[in-house]
Design brief:
The protein is of the alpha/beta class. It has twelve helices and 13 strands. The termini are far apart.
């Protein structure tokens, strides 16, 4: 990545993914206004298979595989993920260069308008709650057996549309972070506390994945790295990694980081595993102490710890210079994400490009056809004297990035950061590992194995019926 070279950013095509990607770019642009960024979108397996529950697809890295292929080949420099979609074991040569300040990780209940006076416990018996998450389904079955849980797929727009128009669902459960980022907080009936539903590992956090050997990109991302979020998600990811779970078993967590004195913090994690029907439940919690360097910052500003002027009046709880409309004393109020319109990809001519590009390279750069610099796109009409072999994507040589064979996966994929000691990162990782071992000692492995076996059996039945 040269000094003036365009920085290519990978993203899924969904509206939420683009909002999150553009948010990260907007933060980086404020720090480096001279840099030029370009979004490269692609569809993942999880985006393409919309009529089958996620656990039944039987594939790891449902929402990341194609994006990581683009990273490996050098088609993109970094990729923005919802951290809950990112496996705890990354492909060789990959790393999480930054995790941003976590949005609310809790789940949200969204009810139909004619049911919005109810709560989960007061909904009429037989009410249907839509979710594609085994974690949510198992907890709902255990705590609210009077409700009926059915699968619902699609992006946020689609699921809300199904709730509003199909008449099939009385409510759906979604990650509150996604609704907040989309600007749809008015749709939230209730934020669900951890005693109602534990949340998914990494939920609410954005992770930025890059090549672990790409020091320039890692340094570029450093200002976005939120240490407190990192410690929490390292513990969560370590627990999941040790359990060996994913979307094919009901596993959930909740974490908290509270300051004790000076630079000492208590990191607490609660983890649980359920059977698919929720009847079996294994829950454990544990705490450790970590040390974080003492640096003050505005709680609403995701990049300000590089800007001393931002926190000069923090003791008086005055307004932040960088985000003056956000009072420092209120961590619940965040600056609004830079959004994109709902039809950002509607009628996008790049979607109709006649050139067949390799996997992970759904390129959205300049095109002599689609930018109308030389004539019409072949989709709409032939261009004299020019063929698809002159596509600038193919004229540009893309070198394969050398991937190391023996890769240090860091802290469940996360790189270290100057603002936190290696010891603290190890403590967080060890906490998750220790809790997972406690769960396994109580039989969590057997519960998870039974759930996975049931799911795999249903896949085989589904396949045989179709054939």
């Amino acid at each position: 990545m040269g000094e003036n070279e365009k920085i290519r950013v990978g993203s899924r095509k969904s509206e939420l993914a683009l909002i999150q990607t553009r948010h990260v770019i907007s933060l980086l642009k404020k720090i480096h206004p001279e840099k030029d960024f370009e979004i490269v979108t692609m569809s993942t397996l999880g985006d393409k298979v919309l009529d089958i529950p996620l656990p039944k697809i039987g594939e790891k890295s449902l929402f990341t595989k194609e994006l990581e292929a683009a990273l490996t080949t050098g088609c993109v420099d970094f990729v923005v993920h919802s951290l809950k979609d990112l496996p705890t074991m990354l492909p060789p040569g990959m790393a999480i260069g930054a995790v941003l300040m976590r949005e609310d990780p809790r789940d949200a209940l969204v009810l139909q308008k004619d049911h919005d006076k109810y709560l989960l416990e007061t909904l009429p018996a037989g009410s249907v709650i839509g979710t594609s998450s085994l974690r949510r389904a198992a907890q709902l079955a255990r705590k609210y057996p009077h409700l009926k849980v059915e699968n619902i797929r699609g992006n946020l727009n689609t699921r809300l549309k199904k709730l509003d128009e199909l008449g099939k669902y009385q409510g759906i459960i979604l990650a509150s972070a996604g609704l907040i980022r989309m600007g749809w907080t008015s749709r939230i009936t209730k934020i669900l506390e951890s005693d109602e539903l534990l949340y998914a590992v990494g939920q609410g956090a954005l992770g930025v994945e890059c090549r672990e050997s790409d020091e320039k990109t890692i340094n570029l991302l450093k200002p976005l790295y939120d240490v407190q979020t990192a410690l929490r998600v390292i513990a969560e990811r370590s627990l999941l990694k040790t359990l060996g779970g994913g979307c094919s078993a009901p596993v959930a967590v909740t974490t908290d980081l509270t300051r004790n004195k000076e630079n000492k913090y208590s990191l607490t994690i609660k983890g649980a595993v359920w059977s698919l029907d929720g009847k079996e439940e294994i829950v454990e919690a544990d705490t450790c102490e970590v040390e974080i360097k003492d640096f003050k910052r505005c709680l609403t500003c995701p990049y300000n710890f590089q800007n001393p002027s931002c926190v000069k009046d923090i003791e008086n709880l005055q307004k932040c210079d960088v985000c003056p409309n956000s009072p420092i004393k209120n961590p619940a109020k965040r600056i609004k994400l830079d959004g994109v319109s709902a039809d950002v990809l509607k009628d996008d001519p790049h979607e109709h490009c006649p050139v067949s590009l390799p996997i992970g390279a759904d390129f959205m750069g300049k095109c002599p056809y689609l930018e109308a610099t030389v004539g019409k796109c072949p989709v709409n009409g032939a261009v004299e004297g020019l063929d698809v072999k002159q596509c600038p994507f193919f004229n540009k040589k893309i070198e394969n990035i050398e991937i190391k064979g023996d890769v240090d996966q860091g802290y469940c994929g996360l790189v270290k950061h100057d603002e936190v000691s290696v010891e603290a990162l190890k403590e967080a990782q060890g906490l998750g590992t220790k809790l997972a071992q406690s769960l396994l000692a109580k039989g969590a492995g057997e519960v998870m194995a039974k759930a996975q076996s049931t799911i795999h059996a249903s896949i085989n039945v589904s396949t045989s019926v179709k054939s």
